[in-house]
């Protein structure tokens, strides 16, 4: 049954650990409870704000209205043929636990996305991605409820309009949709993707330790579980754990530039880190730019730039406005040095 509480602290529900109070708060574990929450808020004419695990939000004010925490669970096999399967997952499931469970079942494809914090329902919002794979590469469809009408509907990959850390759900007015479940298309046969440079380099170091059978290639020796373990160990060595140092992962998106722009930048910064994007465009490492501009390890007013990964801003005892003002200082400095405008990745509530 739906239980709505008043004046609830959100400190433990955002991984930056900023203090904020929800005017009203409820956690919903079924579609029925979610529908009840929508009706409850509609009757009182209150806005609804959806929260998963709070690992990609910057909450800079108290939340007026009803904050709905999505806790709809369940992992079910939806369909299967000889090679592939579709698994239907409740929006409240933990993303990394899902990755581990699918690997255990022999359902492959999510290994590169290991250890990304957050809920399954939030994964399509910014089309989570890491180590050369994005959610959209494994996506089949999802189910949403429209919070303005209370109607449920299925959406296809085309409907979701996925892009780099982007989807329909991030466009103005489209946060009217609440995701209740996500269907992922996985493989029964390992289909390993190791082209991403940081992953490839770590794997190459393993090369000598692997017992390769006669005629077997290096790739054939690798298992999805090995990829998952390596991704986890790279991530643990590079990124601060929000439980120890509150953060929300990458604070900025990697900027996209034309190949021509990249060439001119490379003349000044020969070691600039870039990745292929699409058409004539390239993605530049925002972490490289921030580090090059001297921000790595910087601390001020209880907030700072992580000392291992310059793309991650950390809360060392400050507040949301301090971190936003640091972010703006970084944006200005990157624009002055490289003529590149950094875009903030997480959703800001103020
Ligand atoms: C240490 C660290 C590392 C990270 N690494 C990566 C990475 O490698 N790649 C990557 O892409 N991201 C990364 N992130 C960001 C984050 O993990 C993802 O964006 C994740 O999907 C957020 O999930 P969440 O449940 O915490 O979402 P929340 O922070 O709770 O919500 C994020 C947004 O989604 C909306 N939302 C949440 N659930 C729903 C729903 N069911 N329906 C509709 N809207 C919803 C919220 O309203 C909010 O606008 C990292 C974060 C951290 C802290």
Q: Which compounds are bound in this model?
A: flavin-adenine dinucleotide
Given this structure, which CATH class of the largest domain is correct? Alpha Beta
The H-and-E topology, N to C, reads as: EEHEEEEEHEEEEHEHHHEEHEEHEEEHE
Helix segment tally: 9
Write down how many β-strands occur, each being a DSSP E stretch of 2 or more residues. Answer: 20
Globally, the shape reads globular
How many strands, what sense, and barrel or not for the largest sheet? 5 strands, antiparallel
Name the helicity range.
25-40%
* Low-pLDDT segments: none
Cα(first) to Cα(last) distance is 31 Å
Please list the strands of the largest sheet in the order they lie side by side. 6-7-12-10-11
- CATH topology annotation of the largest domain: Uridine Diphospho-n-acetylenolpyruvylglucosamine Reductase, domain 3
The whole-angstrom Rg is 21 Å
Strand content: 25-35%
Class by helix and strand content?
A: alpha+beta
What's this entry about, in short?
This protein has 350 residues and is of the alpha+beta class. It contains 9 helices and 20 strands. The protein has helices at residues 31-43, 95-105, 157-160, 197-206, 218-221, 224-238, 259-268, 286-292, 320-338, and strands at 5-9, 21-28, 48-51, 57-59, 63-70, 75-80, 84-90, 129-130, 133-134, 139-146, 152-156, 177-187, 247-250, 256-258, 274-276, 281-284, 299-300, 303-305, 312-315, 347-349.
